[in-house]
């Protein structure tokens, strides 16, 4: 390893340690702070989701739940490949579990998180060639006014956002009905997603 590569790795390690020690939202997070993110300078694929759920908060492992199982199915990827930080980075919009609303479902990602931490983290992840934008929060931040009127329309227009981005719905069980109403997603987008991810990771 060159001195520059070693220095780059140590800089990223220090940045990630700083992020993981963040307590900015300690006063409003019902379950406390546990920022969850992964990655390395060699990672070529970045996954930007919403925020950790209860199970991920407990384990500290991103997408370590049923939603992650569905996402890995979409990617045709096993857990070993998915958690290879040298190839895949995971940086959610909210790094900590925001808690669950009284009527079910998690609260939105904390709004302080992405503006504070995404710029330095994504700048440090200099090897990224493709970013998966999962859900409306990630799509709003990274597509801006290129976004369509609805999440469905944005995902259906996925070809408009390449080669840097692919917008996806959240793989939560709560979106099963959406998937049933939109069969084009698994018939058209998922095969293209798998091809594009393979190109990025293997190219």
TrEMBL record:
<feature type="domain" description="Uracil-DNA glycosylase-like">
    <location>
        <begin position="36"/>
        <end position="194"/>
    </location>
</feature>
<protein>
    <submittedName>
        <fullName>Uracil-DNA glycosylase</fullName>
    </submittedName>
</protein>
<dbReference type="Pfam" id="PF03167">
    <property type="entry name" value="UDG"/>
</dbReference>
<dbReference type="InterPro" id="IPR047124">
    <property type="entry name" value="HI_0220.2"/>
</dbReference>
<dbReference type="InterPro" id="IPR005122">
    <property type="entry name" value="Uracil-DNA_glycosylase-like"/>
</dbReference>
<dbReference type="InterPro" id="IPR036895">
    <property type="entry name" value="Uracil-DNA_glycosylase-like_sf"/>
</dbReference>
